[in-house]
Amino acid sequence: MPTLSQENYLKALWHLAADGKVTLQRLASHLGVSPASALAMVRKLSANKLVTYRRTTGIRLTAKGRLTALQIVRRHRLWEVFLHDKLGYQWDEVHSIAEQLEHVAPADLTERLDAFLGYPRFDPHGDPIPQHDGTLPGRSDLVLSEQPPAMYRIVGLVQTHDALLRQLHSLNLTIGQVVELRHHRSFDDVFVLRVGQNTEHIGRAVAERIIVEPA
Amino acid sequence: MPTLSQENYLKALWHLAADGKVTLQRLASHLGVSPASALAMVRKLSANKLVTYRRTTGIRLTAKGRLTALQIVRRHRLWEVFLHDKLGYQWDEVHSIAEQLEHVAPADLTERLDAFLGYPRFDPHGDPIPQHDGTLPGRSDLVLSEQPPAMYRIVGLVQTHDALLRQLHSLNLTIGQVVELRHHRSFDDVFVLRVGQNTEHIGRAVAERIIVEPA
DNA sequence: TTCATATTTTAGTCACGACTAAAAAATAAT
DNA sequence: ATTATTTTTTAGTCGTGACTAAAATATGAA
């Protein structure tokens, strides 16, 4: 388990890796820290197999390091959603508070929070929330209500509130579930789903909140 | 602003003060720390005017220290309510997680959380949640549904969920509001309230969640 | 009171994560 | 190619909050 400081470094490294080689300088100035301090920490992270560092390649996250970083970003963005959606903060106020909360990480807290928030896929800034498995939702993901009849896997539930979430749960419409989509013969805002043995009918408002990929 | 460690000491001191003189030994063993470490920290707290320490009296919180400690306990217990009521943790699981969250304290986060949770007065263990002004709710507080007709001030809303909270808010039934209670002439689980110019009717289930004091 | 025990206090260390200043190495410019 | 500049690295410090071991002070029992 990385320390609090190590987590901040990993998160910074993940962000910086998006545009190019990560030098000590970049890392240090991003964190407002001296290059000497950055080097010391990079060595610790390296000893923990979270990063590799060679002068030529710069600092690179290992698979393990990237996974860890993604979980921190995930927690950060989920807390941002909480602060915005539940506590009514403005989108520009949530970042600094989430920065504190993101380091709280007992066992299943993140997953419970995710469920409580209705499996949001984007934070209040519109940035994608890394999923449990380390994948990032793309803006190109498919909304169930817009798909032709076929087999789909549910990969996300958007802006779901408690009541709807319970409803979906009772219909077995949960993340990971594979469903067969058909359209209703008469009503174009009723969607017919085969879920395992059962056939369920849901409305457009609900179908718009279910994100799928072809299965 | 006390450091994270200082906050833990203050909280421990507040808890320990409940039963008698607080010696270095008690403090140290409560925190799992050596007496020498405890002394060092007590000196820092003393320099910050948060505690006084004389061999004879033991360690005592100053008014400032007590206020600070109460705010930490407040945050702790509010987070416990969140974890229990919103994330579905069992009452015995919340303590250790809240221990992490209690140190996150930007400006109005605590107050927003309090409002979001419906101004709970007791945590999942049944312990009172210190109020913003540092007072502790007593178990002797009055439940509106059990009171005779008279004027009352609303001092708490118990175990309120979102929907109910919105309802109460729309009726102006918020903390601090003064209302005149009357009983319905025919139905004994309907309560009639004069709130300012308006007369409102609420059911027993709602009235049971409104805590009052005579006004 | 005097000795034994418990508590408090000092003194010196350690790990962590930061710092500065200067040395070493790599890169760029003339 | 040699110099100048930037980047990396070393070396030594500092503050925080912990530690141990031993000294000083209280407290309790005979």
What does this 3D model show about the protein?
The structure is a homodimer of 215-residue chains. Chain A is α+β, with helices and mostly antiparallel strands. Among the domains of chain A are: 58 residues, Winged helix-like DNA-binding domain superfamily/Winged helix DNA-binding domain (Arc Repressor Mutant, subunit A, Orthogonal Bundle); 73 residues, Roll (SH3 type barrels), CATH 2.30.30. Chain A has 8 helices and 8 strands. In chain A, the strands form 2 sheets. In chain A, strands 3-8-4-5-6-7 form a 6-stranded antiparallel sheet. In chain A, strands 1-2 form a two-stranded antiparallel ribbon. In chain A, helix 1 packs across helix 2 and helix 2 packs across helix 3. Chain A is elongated and about 70 Å long. At the A-B interface, helix 5 and helix 6 of A face helix 5 and helix 6 of B. The first copy, chain A, binds a DNA duplex (30 and 30 nucleotides) through helix 3.
